[in-house]
Amino acid sequence: MKLERVELLHVALPLVTPFRTSFGTMTSKDTFLLRVVTDVTEGWSEFAADPQPLYCSEFVAGAEIVIRDFLLPRVAALPEPTTALVAPAMASVKGHELAKAALETALLDAELRAYGMSFATFLGSVHERVPAGVSVGIKNSVPELLDDVERYLAEGYVRIKLKIEPGWDIEPVRAVRERFGDALPLQVDANTAYTLADAEHLRGLDDFGLLLIEEPLEENNLHAHARLQKRLATPVCLDESIHSARDAASAIAMDACRVVNVKPARVGGYPGARRIHDVAAAHGVPVWCGGMLETGIGRAPNLALAALPGFTLPGDTSASGRYFAEDITEPFVLKDGHLPVPTAPGIGVDPLPDVLARFTTRTEVLYTKGK
Ligand code: OSB
Ligand code: MG
């Protein structure tokens, strides 16, 4: 497999409803897709972060530079850009896991398409469909939140995650429990909005039988999360703080988390995500697949990952319609609360050319062989 061309397509897809978290409000998914062309086939991926570095330190414009100026020259110098060689070739560039994940995933897609092998087979997935949870943003009022949760439950979602922040935590959780009962699988995500000084307040959440509280404290502060876990019955789950299997091993050893949210992009790609799954499984720690409001291009391989045996909790892998009126692939549709794991070669989906053209705002050629 020879690398011939790499294109970057900026896309902007309006969200069906604004998504508010403790770090900001998103009204559209603005990111880029990578299209790699080899002498055999092509491959696609989606950069997972946003135009602003508010969820994580990486952002769209920065990632474009990192891929073009630092990652691609290293990958293009390889005899073949196969997955086994690509990650080691990029390793001398510090950090930038989401940028690395985008390039690695597009190349892996091309490689697997050449073999006729799906992501699910490559990763070792064991399920044909995965249960779907939904992440519900911060709302202006509790009645508005209850209406949204009711609608998602009517659509079939099997687990609800509420975004929380100081001033929007105990009250919405209590209201959802009162309205929908104790049996509803329910969890919360603070996206780093609290400090250890809030431990007593967060202990108030222990009354509600939550599955977990996700990333309550600052990113990468495993020590503080371990101290908080000592004071909470609710399992702490880490998202932002886990960038590698080593991080997962440290966090589990310190009891800084009892659950891990695995986002392939945040950990540098799918092989890295698989390693976190393996480390967690070896410790009996459940994992689930997070999301970044991906289009179908990013969602498809996430569903394959979510079908690994250690993904024992429902993920944030929701249907296309939860995000977009129109997706750039054939839409993922919920059936009995589940989404199908793609079976076609590679990521298993392709952009719909006319829809992609309509949502593309700018295209850059990052690499052409021989130039
Ligand atoms: O913290 O899990 C998060 C979306 C964007 C950035 C960070 C997060 C989220 C979500 C939604 O919670 C996940 C999804 O539905 O894709
Ligand atoms: Mg999160």
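Residues 97-115 form the longest helix (19 residues).
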